[in-house]
Each structure stands twice: as structure tokens, then as C-alpha cells.
Amino acid sequence: MRILYVACEGEATEPDYLDYLNERFGDGDGRGRRPFRIQPVSRRSGRTPSGIVEAARQAAGEDEAWALFDRDQWKDIPQAAEAAARGRVEMALSHPSFDLWLLLHFQAFGGAQSGSSKLVVEKLRQARGADAFKEYDKKGDKSVRGARREALRDRESRAVAHARSLVSSCAHGACEPGRAETVPAGGVAGKTVSSQEWAARSGHAVGCQMLRRDPSTDVWRLLVSLGIGS
User: Fold this and answer.
1) Sheet with 216-217, side-by-side order of all strands
2) What does the alpha-carbon distance between residue 154 and residue 41 come to, in Å, rounded to a whole number?
3) pLDDT digit string (tens) for 157-192?
4) Helix H or strand E encompassing 162
5) Residue 35 DSSP class
6) What DSSP string runs through 54-113?
7) What is the enclosing helix (H) or strand (E) of 217?
8) Is the pTM of this model over 0.90?
9) How far apart are CA 67 and CA 89, in angstroms?
10) Distances from the Cα of 170 to the Cα of 24, 117, 178, angstroms
11) Which distant-in-sequence residues (6+ apart) come within 8 Å of 73 by Cβ?
């Protein structure tokens, strides 16, 4: 069984979603998709992107490590990318936030958000088929459970396609989702990989700065690597 330790910033949304992936897909499909188990790594006080990368590395040990973090207004994302490249920790940056990944299950989205999730959340609440999310982020409720999980069900391929299209439409102009490396490298002995090269494994050009990928989300790489929504 494939074991993944996935560290994340959120206290509820991301861990709930990762549990959903375990519940829905973790047993495999008896064909091409292998069984897997995701171990969410989170804490109430939250972490910076660099802290998330380090938490993933420490928790995983010799197992597979992923770091999910948001753009928000964090300043240390370049440092997080450097640490991820050194430690061979897979990254999934969402710009402006993980809420974008949820929205892409229901509709496409575009337009720079400069780290603000306000419009993304508004669109999620109003999206066709997303009735369960009408109260999302109201009174602090950002859970992904019950009816919200059912609303996401069988929309994974749509979300992946929408996320990949954001790579194609990146303002940098030379980003192509077809170049993405969706299977973890696992660390190649003796090979040094720069943070720019490591971050470009999402299909973005090596010269495309992570902080300027607005909007974007790399969560699709996690799903595709697990055989979901490809």
C-alpha cells in the first residue's frame, strides 16, 4: 500500500478533504489504481509554508511526503520551495487558497486574486451543484464533510481539467500542463535540483515565479499521482 504524509496549513478543510480521498479512493479500484493511505499532518495553530514542508519531511521519514499550502500573504514561499527541493517533499501550492481547488470541482475560474480568497469563496457558495457549500466559511465553518463530500463526488476529473487549464493560461506564457511530473521523483541520489526546477514540476516554466501563479492550484498533481481524475 502506498503511504503518503501530507502536511497542510488548515485545521479543518484540507485534513477533511484528505480524509475524503482516503474514504472514497483509498482501497484502490482493483484495476490500475493502487490502494493508498494518506496521513494528514496538521495542527491547530497552523504553520508557515516552510514549517509545513519541514513537518511533512519529519513525519514521513522514508515514506512519501507532500506539503499543501496557500499563497495568502505568506512571505516565505520561496524558502519553502528551497526546503522542499532539498528534502524531496512534493509541493501543492494554491493561489490564493485551497478554496480554489474546491471551486474547480464545479466551475472554471480565472483572474488574479492577489492572495485574497474572498471572490473564490463567494463563487463556491453560488456554484451550480454546490448547494452544500452555501454556508461555507460562515461562522468559521470550513469543514468538508457529509453533504459537502457528496457534492464533490465524481467531480474530480473536472477539477483536474480546470486546474490544468490554469497552468496553460498562466501569465508567464511558457507554462504547459503537459510538462508536469505527476509521479513523485522520490529523490535521485547524487542529483541536485534547484527550487525553481522542483517548483516547475507542476508544468509551469522554470522561470515562472511561484508567487506570480495567480490563480493556480497544484492539488491536481496529488490526485493524478494517486490515479484519480486523470
Assistant:
1) 36-41, 2-8, 64-70, 90-95, 216-217
2) 25
3) 999 999 999 999 999 999 999 999 876 654 445 567
4) helix 156-168
5) P
6) HHHHHHHTTSEEEEEEE-TT-S-HHHHHHHHHHHT-EEEEEES-HHHHHHTTT----S--
7) strand 216-217
8) yes
9) 7
10) 31, 18, 14
11) 115
